[in-house]
Write a structure and sequence with these properties.
Length: about 375
């Protein structure tokens, strides 16, 4: 399988992944090193794997969800709640516009219903399902990959393993209406700290990918140590998700994003989650911070008094109870910086903050 991860929005970041031995672009089907049962370097599952579920939608009924997926562990669960503005916030109009903009631009990528935010009842996307499949331990190549990472951590040795093609099909709809998703995942153990884009200690890195997007996740070595280290859900220390609306799977054909795509200026969404004691590329503390960025050459003018915003960035700071600046919004007439470049917009055209309607939301997914 050759994925379409090599899109223009994230060249610097993907170069970093390549340098780390984690590539989602032009993956081959060869292998080297030992086997998937040990700490091996460069092992690739050559044959496609197939899984079937009655539905690919994750809702509140964990017992009947695909891979027993838990809605509370999905990608945007906490962020959609904490970024909803309080009714008494000083910048209520601007805050409402920012939240509505986030909701509208994210729904097409992640598959929740924006009319139900923040307490949405279901999501439908490959990454949240893949996370559940990995945690379940029931999908053989995914479990083998995590077992290999456990061995690498125990041996304090570098290693990598990848699952190129994992086809997931829903069986409940009729033949013509059912979806088949092609997913992939790469794991690598890095016994030495990564220095770019985020200084981080010995870790296990994971890149999950679909034809239109990716999620890059870092886990501390401790997550793969101890009893049962290769089973269950693992709390990440850092997560970066990139969604590119350049591909037809991610957009509504009736929306303006289609025109942007045809013009070669598709919008992109980047979601960054910094948990525990993590730093960004400028060594600035990003602990307990989530950040959502929308970027497009086709500017938006949906914000009152702010025209031609090509970059909209919403940052949530967890743990600031009743703080007026718990959520920060930055608007810029220039395109957002790349994923591994400046951590902050240098000179945003307009910035405002607001308080959250749910200040006590924890930044966890475990």
């Amino acid at each position: 399988m050759k994925t379409r991860l090599c899109f223009r929005a994230y060249p610097a970041f993907l170069a970093t992944l390549l340098a780390s031995g984690l590539t989602g672009c032009e993956l081959d089907s060869g292998s080297s090193g030992g086997g998937p049962g040990s700490c091996t370097d460069g092992f690739t599952f050559e044959d496609p794997s197939e899984e079937q579920y009655s539905s690919l939608t994750i809702d509140r009924d964990q017992a009947t969800n695909p891979a027993q997926a838990d809605l509370e562990k999905t990608l945007f669960r906490q962020f959609t709640q904490i970024t909803k503005p309080a009714g008494t916030t000083a910048n209520k109009e601007s805050a409402t516009q920012a939240y509505d903009f986030f909701s509208r631009k994210t729904e097409g990528f992640i598959g929740f219903n924006q009319s139900e935010l923040p307490e949405y009842n279901s999501v439908r996307n490959g990454f949240d399902l893949l996370e559940a499949m990995i945690a379940s331990g029931d999908v053989a190549p995914l479990q083998t990959a995590r077992d290999a990472m456990v061995n690498c951590v125990r041996e304090d040795a570098p290693g990598s393993i990848r699952v190129n093609t994992l086809k997931v099909t829903e069986t409940e709809p009729s033949q013509k209406d059912r979806d088949t998703w092609e997913l992939g995942v790469n794991y690598a153990h890095n016994p030495e700290p990564l220095t770019d884009p985020t200084p981080f200690g010995p870790n296990v890195a994971r890149v999950a990918f679909t034809p239109e997007s990716f999620v890059f996740t870092l886990y501390p070595n401790e997550a793969f140590e101890g009893v049962g280290p290769s089973s269950g859900f693992k709390q990440p220390s850092k997560l970066i998700a990139g969604f590119n609306a350049d591909f037809e799977e991610t957009i509504n054909e009736q929306e303006s994003d289609e025109e942007e795509s045809e013009a070669g200026n598709a919008a992109s969404v980047i979601f960054e989650s910094f948990l525990d004691n993590t730093q960004d590329d400028r060594r600035k503390d990003r602990s307990k911070t989530d950040r959502w960025s929308w970027s497009s050459e086709q500017a938006t003018d949906v914000f009152t008094g702010v025209a031609n915003a090509r970059c909209v960035r919403i940052t949530a700071y967890y743990g600031r109870d009743n703080a007026d600046d718990q959520v920060k919004v930055e608007l810029d007439s220039k395109t957002c910086p790349g994923i591994s470049s400046a951590s902050d917009l240098e000179n945003p055209d307009h910035t405002f903050s607001y308080s959250s309607a749910k200040t006590s939301i924890p930044q966890v997914r475990d």
